[in-house]
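User: My collaborator sent over this chain with a note saying "see what the structure looks like." That's all I know about it. Can you take a look?
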Amino acid sequence: MFETFAQNFDWSWVRNIVFVAYALTTISIIIVVLSENRNPVKSLAWVTVLLLLPMVGIILYLFFGRNIKNTRKLSRRNRRRLKKRQAATNVDPQELGLSAESCQQILLAESLTDAHLYGGNDVRVYTNGKEKFADLKKDLRAARTFINLEYYIFENDSIGNEIADILIGRAREGVKVRIIYDHVGSFTVKNGFYRRMRAAGIQVFPFFEVTFPQLGTRINWRNHRKLCVIDGSIGYLGGMNIADRYITGGKFPSWRDTHVRVAGPIVSALQYSFAVDWHFMGQPLIEEPTIARPMGNVAAQMVTSGPTSQWSNIALIFHKAIANAKHRIYIQSPYFLPTDALLKDLHTAALAHVDVRIMIPKKSDSLLLNYASASYITECLRSGVKIYLYEAGMLHSKMIIVDDEMTTIGSTNFDFRSFEHNFEGNLFFYSRDFTSRMLEIYRNDLTHCQRVITWQWKKRPITRRAAESVIRLLSPIL
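Assistant: Without extra context I'll predict from the sequence alone. Here is the result:
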């Protein structure tokens, strides 16, 4: 009976309805893309994909093309409540004798994110996971009131379980422990790992949990921050996740990264960042106090950025810092996929005889990103930018040094994803002494690098160059 019905049924009108529905959906998405007034190149790219790739274009747009700018993470009332909890010892940059360029940069960050400059901070720098985790474990064991921990990856491995055991022990002693992990970044970690901590009274939540039907609305936006606040007096921030490879090197001989431990008024800014993310997930507002007592002599400013921000906060500050540079711009990043505007900034600086150096890994943990990064090297060399390939292992450090008094360290890679799709956090340090320390570290890293020479670079196989060019087209979504 069904076969007879199927043979006699006129399917043409069903095909017509499907075609019309698809056409209307495609046109509607194109109208949305155009109405958002994005970068014309990006808008044209999406229109082309939607028209030339039936169905596939719509799926790609749902996963990677949607825009959530200006989504409010926190009400004005709650923002004021949290701001009252921040340290009241923010300082006037002019009182610190900073250059006019640094003062402008600090004011830009204040305009973008209401980020205060805090003086009197002590900063300890880590360039390997062994030392960082040794101090972190010591500080976690000493916690008395609360621990707020936020990591892109919290792995179920040796160091992950060691940290988890410490947190469970502190929770059982009455310490309030909160954990945010990124659901996509920690996707391979089994739920049992987190259930064990929840059973001990730890509040553990995935950021933007990717489940149906929210798959297409969340998978492209990731919380890439890596920070920890202990008792409101100690903070950690940088490029290291919680995973064994940051200690052992994983599949690399070593894993070179940069992370900092801060003590002093700036910790309140880390606490504020965590509190905003915590509330964004529907949790109660955190109003625990932070300790504002000066602990050192470094001035610092915490800047966050994400797809919900009105502006690309960290990218704009990078623009300003590069434009202000007079002597040097030293960059370390595991991936180098700059926006067109930032790439032009670097070319302009190099052509103006600023010493521009970019250090990336010779082999990275992502073959696709390795190829995409390489596609930018030729034009950088042409403008006078110096490129160094780190050979001692995986370079995962995210650091920029500009001239003699500004250094930024955090979770932000020099790539599209960090600037536009990820929730990121960076500390900007304004101190000649601290910048001198970081310059020494950078120059030591240079001894483990191979400098890219133009004539040698041009000899790489044509197949590799073709692969680099093709993969570069995917840069905005890698």
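A starting point for your reply to your collaborator: The longest strand covers residues 117-126.
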